[in-house]
Structure formats: C-alpha cells, structure tokens
Design a protein that fits this description.
Blueprint lengths: L23 H4 L6 H6 L3 E6 L8 E5 L2 E7 L5 E5 L13 E3 L2 E3 L6 E2 L5 E3 L17 E2 L1 E4 L2 E5 L13 H4 L6 E5 L15 H7 L5 H9 L13 E6 L3 E9 L5 E9 L3 E3 L9 E2 L2 E9 L2 E10 L22 H6 L3 H6 L17 H18 L21 E5 L2
Antiparallel strand pairs: 1-11, 2-3, 3-4, 4-9, 5-6, 6-7, 7-8, 10-11, 12-19, 13-14, 14-15, 15-16, 15-20, 16-18, 17-20, 18-19
The structure holds FE2/S2 (inorganic) cluster and fe (ii) ion.
The site of fe (ii) ion (FE2) has 5 residues, from helix 5.
Length: about 400
C-alpha cells in the first residue's frame, strides 16, 4: 500500500466542522420571533420598585428600549423610549404630576401613553387623541416591577408564589438587582438560555464550583450527587442526593420554572428548608441578560450572602489571572459565546436536564403555534399561589 492510499489518522480536526448552527427559535427574544412571542406571554420583572421614580430610567428588556417612571400619583409607567412625535428619547424627559413630558416639543404622556398635552399645537392639541406613546402594562409585587409585553388580550394575572407569600417568623421580602446567581456582573453578556440551562445542570456543581476552582459554595455541595430529573407542570425538577459523613442524606431540589424562573435553594446551604428566593432571568436582548431576585430574609443583606466568593474575593475584585484560575458560572456561560453554537454540542447522559428544558420550551412554542396557551399562566385573579418543591432537605438514611 503506498502512502497515498493509507486511511488517514487525523480524524476530527477542526477543518471538518460544519458551518455553525444556532437554534434561533429557542434563543431569540425579539418581537415576532417564536421565543420572543412565548416570553411575551408572561410577566417579567424589569426593575426594583424603587427604579420607578421622578427621574426617567432606561430599561432594556426582550430587545426593546423602554423608559420607566412614576407619576405624581405614585403610578409606575413603562413606555417606549422613542417619543411618538418625532422620535427623540424620553430619557431626557421630565416627570410631572400627570406623567412624562418629552424634552423636544413638550408632549406630555400619562403612564399608559395617552397624550395629555401638545403645547406647540393650537389649543394644546385638538387632535392629541390621534397619537399614543407605545406603552406596556406594569404591576408591582415582591418589591419588583413586572411588565407584560405581549398581546393585550392574552394578559395573564401576575402570578403569586407560596415561597414569597408565606413568611416564617420575622421574615420579610428582600430584593436584589445585581444578578445574584449569575456569578459575575449585573449585565451578563451572553444569551439568557445559556444561564437558564445551567439551572438544570447539577453535575457542573462539583466540578466548576468545587474540584476545579476550589469550594465556591460549601463542602456539602462538593461531592458528585445522585440525580434524577423530572418534568413538572411548571418546568423541570432536579433532585440531587448526597450521603453525608454522618450517614444522613442531603436532598436538594432545584427547579427551572417556565419561562425564566430559577428556583434554586441557597447553594451555600446555610439551613435546611424550602426554597427562600426566586430569580427571574430577564433577557435584555439576544446576547445579554440580567437576573432579578426576591426572597425571604430575616436580616437585610441575607440575600447577598448567597453570592459566591472566589478564594474570599468577590468576582469584581478579581484580576483576569484570578478569573482564569478560578472560573465560575459567569466564565463558563459567557465562555460559550454570545450565543452558543448548538450544532457543535455533544450531549451526554448528565445533560438530561438540558434536553428536558429545551424540549419543554419547544413544546410551548408548538402549543402556541397550535393556538393553545403555554404552561404556567393563569387568567384567574383568585388563582392559588404557585408552590415549589425546591429546597435543601436532610433525610435519615
Ligand atoms: S419628539 Fe417628543 S415631543 Fe417632539
Ligand atoms: Fe453554577
């Protein structure tokens, strides 16, 4: 056999890679895209209640630029940033008793976008009803402002959650806007689904957060768990069990609830109890997201104590070399790229949760295509609070 005919050994070189393919239906969040429309069927937190005040505030959500404010009567308003007159941004507007006034020609809008005044027009604007500033409904709850950015006739009730309704002794609701759980800064520069999938990926915990980078959470989480995944009426449940040195079983349940909720019990396992907080992953656009959290606290700052530290340092105090030596969730997820390349993935058995959450999201896209409502929404104002199973528990062996 001459050399030219020998089967070559250099298989799997990068030269053989196909053109990258992305499951755009699952990741893109803009209006009119499949996932963008699915996400728009739910309420999303777009800020802390305190964000809405007498100074217009920029909000970017699901790829749209918006302005949040609070009128003199205390009502929060969320309007498109571009003024419906000639398009300047309402960010430079002024908040007044009755609404938000554009800086350019002084049109005054109420919290629902109605044009109240047009000072340059005869008699203050005889035809002012002909224009309306695009706006979105907002509701406040758990210290957060939620917006509904979908079709008006499909607006569900703002859900309530048992873990934020039923307080223990001395507990109150605390909020966090620093993207707690994201492992890095407030705005995380990659697609939201990369983070959301991580919620149902318990096997990365003993690697990324323990053996690889040193114990970022607690020793209880450092060993490889036994895991089962399950689809629930709300999303995907992950049950992890670990046998402790004292022979007892550490049982942890984590949930990813459709569409973006992280129902993750304290990874530092400060106590064994039902989940104490909910994190909402807010897609800012296709390539960035942030996380809002509301949770039960006994002392102000309790929520913040859940933040990961790396050799005693917060993420933002670390040098590039330290990030490289001790990567966490931020590095792993942003490291997948602005939007991960799905055609280059190789799923293994430990990725079952990710397969399930993708399938569940796809099922909701299919349901909407068929004219049905996706799961997890209710139109009943008296709907009972949603009860999660998530928590850290101890069981006798
Ligand atoms: S551009 Fe806003 S009032 Fe003219
Ligand atoms: Fe993680």
């Amino acid at each position: 056999m001459n050399v030219m005919q020998q089967p070559h050994r250099d298989e799997g070189t990068a030269y053989e890679l196909r053109a990258p393919q992305i499951k755009t239906d699952l990741v893109e969040v803009g209006r009119g895209t499949p996932m963008g429309e699915l996400l728009r069927r739910y309420w999303h937190p777009i800020g802390l209640a305190s964000y809405a005040n007498g100074t217009p505030r920029k909000v970017r959500a699901l790829g749209e630029d918006l302005i949040l404010f609070r009128d003199g009567a205390g009502k929060a308003g969320l309007v498109h940033a571009r003024c419906c007159h000639r398009g300047t941004t309402l960010y430079y507007g002024k908040v007044e008793e009755r609404g938000l006034r554009c800086c350019y020609h002084g049109w005054l809008f109420d919290t629902e976008g109605r044009v109240l005044e047009q000072p340059c027009e005869p008699e203050g604007g005889l035809f002012r009803d002909k224009a309306r500033q695009p706006w979105y409904p907002v509701e406040e709850g758990y210290g957060l402002i939620f917006a509904y950015m979908g079709p008006p006739e499909k607006k569900p009730v703002l859900p309530r959650y048992e873990c934020l309704e039923v307080m223990g002794d001395g507990e109150f609701i605390e909020t966090d806007d620093s993207s707690l759980g994201g492992g890095g800064p407030q705005v995380i520069p990659c697609n939201w689904l990369q983070h959301y999938e991580n919620v149902v990926d318990p096997f990365h915990v003993p690697v990324l957060h323990a053996s690889f980078s040193g114990a970022q959470f607690t020793m209880a989480m450092a060993s490889m768990p036994q895991v089962t995944f399950e689809m629930s009426p709300r999303g995907v449940l992950v049950r992890s069990t670990r046998t402790q040195e004292d022979g007892k079983i550490f049982y942890r349940v984590t949930e990813a609830a459709i569409p973006t909720l992280r129902v993750v019990p304290d990874p530092r396992v400060s106590k064994f109890a039902r989940v104490e907080s909910i994190g909402w992953v807010l897609p800012i656009d296709d390539t960035s997201f942030r996380i809002y959290v509301a949770g039960r606290s006994r002392q102000k700052g309790d929520l913040g104590k859940k933040r990961s530290k790396f050799s005693g340092k917060y993420w933002w105090d670390m040098t590039e070399e330290e990030h490289q030596r001790e990567p966490g969730d931020y590095e792993a997820q942003v490291g997948q790229g602005p939007i991960t390349v799905h055609s280059e993935e190789h799923f293994a058995q430990s990725d079952r949760g990710i397969v399930m959450i993708r399938r569940m999201l796809q099922d909701q896209l299919d349901a909407m295509k068929a004219g049905r409502d996706p799961i997890g929404i209710s139109f009943d104002p008296n709907a009972a609070p949603v009860v999660f199973e998530a928590g850290n528990y101890i069981r006798e062996a």
